[in-house]
Specification:
The chain has about 400 residues and is an alpha/beta fold. The protein is about 25% helix and about 20% strand. The strands form three sheets. A six-stranded mixed beta sheet has the order 10-11-9-12-13-14, with helices on both faces. The protein has a five-stranded mixed beta sheet with strand order 3-1-8-5-6, with no helix packed on it. The protein is elongated. The protein starts with a helix and ends in an 8-residue tail after the last helix. About 5% of the residues have low confidence.
């Protein structure tokens, strides 16, 4: 084959490739968006080494700088990564002692801004600390001591290790449910969030935060977590990545489809009651303490055909969930049932009045549980007036 025919073949292959590329289905936008959400990151931190001492005059070297994280409002892990793309953070070394400066200069600390809601673990997955409040600070690597008599005037190396930053969303309400339960539709209807909505499972593949606004300017945050599936607690599907985000919510809001759920033809169909039991089971297997949180159940899509009849069939079982569990096989039966403060029937798509009702109920539940958790001792008004009453001198 001569060089001209070889060149022709190459050109033909290139044309075929370009043609197939044009005709191929483009990458869906929501898959591109998935890469934008970052809730876990591993970085290397290195504190400063202490400066050398000066034995001749007994001079001490300066301490190495510490590396610390500072919780910053309005920041994301993506912002952190943009600032530190190499994921390496280092503090300054302490200054050496010398004849003109007996005490070496202390190395400057390295303070790094991180999002609020960060939990920091070391390379052995041991908890170092949490940063849940604005401007709270956590030292993740301590600087080494400066050289002095006790260490032979040699500066001590600062801590050097890998740490994992794990973001747990801080929201008042955690919205949990299987795919296609209507979580995104509900969140859009009740808040200012604009999640992707479609008729196929897994339209939500990253958490969405919505803000519920009230006429008196009260605001409540709600996190829509991507759909769980059976086995999410042991890393099946996407739900395991986001279960951690329900840990810091004050109220769990479970939403289920009255018509049940089937992920695909290969999976078993689950009725409405079975989906509730399975959600209960997944939460229990991930972290049993989640079942002690205040919880509310929304039975969605009540505007569909036969929905009322289906609800009446399971109404008594929902109100007596402990007894209902006994009729389910062991593989899906949780050891402990979740206690619902309210069970509401709604149509998130077509009934705005249902949304208004839920909006008011979640506010009341949050307020009631806040009062119970604070356990503030109330004093009668007359007792308070008596304490504030002016008193004159007492004649003995």
């Amino acid at each position: 084959m001569n060089c001209f025919s070889t060149k022709a073949v190459i050109q033909m292959v290139v044309r075929q490739y370009n043609s197939s590329k044009k005709n191929s289905k483009p990458l869906r936008n929501y898959l591109k968006q998935n890469s934008r959400f970052l809730d876990s990151l591993r970085v290397h931190v290195k504190a400063g080494t202490g400066g050398f001492g000066f034995p001749k005059y007994g001079g001490e070297g300066g301490k190495g700088g510490d590396v610390s994280f500072v919780a910053t409002d309005g920041m994301t892990l993506k912002d952190f990564l943009n600032k530190y793309p190499r994921k390496k953070i280092q503090a300054e070394t302490g200054g050496n002692s010398h004849s003109r400066r007996i005490l070496g200069q202390i190395g400057q600390d390295k303070k790094v801004n991180v999002p609020i809601g960060i939990t920091v673990y070391d390379d052995k997955n041991v908890l170092i600390g949490d940063l849940n409040e604005k401007d709270s600070e956590l030292i993740v690597a301590k600087g080494g001591e400066g050289g002095k008599n006790s260490n032979g005037y040699c500066g001590v190396k600062g801590e050097s290790r890998s740490v994992k930053l794990e973001l747990k969303l801080i929201a008042d309400i955690g919205l949990v449910g299987f795919p296609n339960a209507g979580k995104s539709t509900f969140l859009k209807a009740i808040s200012n969030a604009k999640p992707k909505i479609a008729s196929y499972p897994f339209t939500t593949i990253r958490p969405n935060i919505g803000i519920l606004s009230y006429e008196d300017l009260r605001q409540i945050s709600m996190a829509d977590l991507p759909g769980l599936i059976e086995g999410a607690h042991c890393n099946i599907g996407m739900g395991h990545r986001f279960l951690r985000h329900v840990e810091r919510t004050k109220l769990l809001l479970l939403i289920v489809d009255i018509n049940g759920f089937q992920l695909n033809p290969k999976h078993k169909f689950r009725s409405c009651l079975e989906t509730i039991i399975l959600l209960n089971k997944e939460l229990e297997l991930y972290k049993e303490e989640l079942l002690d949180k205040p919880a509310m159940l929304l039975i969605n899509k009540m505007d569909t055909e036969g929905a009322k009849e289906k609800y009446l069939e399971i109404k008594d079982q929902l109100e007596n969930l402990d007894e209902a569990l006994l009729s389910f096989p062991k593989e899906i039966r949780p050891l402990k049932s979740i206690k619902f403060d309210k069970i509401i029937q709604i149509s998130a798509k077509n009934q705005p009045d249902d949304i208004k009702q839920v909006k008011q109920i979640v506010r009341n539940l949050l307020d009631i549980n806040e009062e119970l958790s604070n356990d503030v001792e109330c004093h009668p008004l007359e007792d308070l007036k008596e304490q504030l009453r002016e008193r004159g001198p007492v004649l003995l």
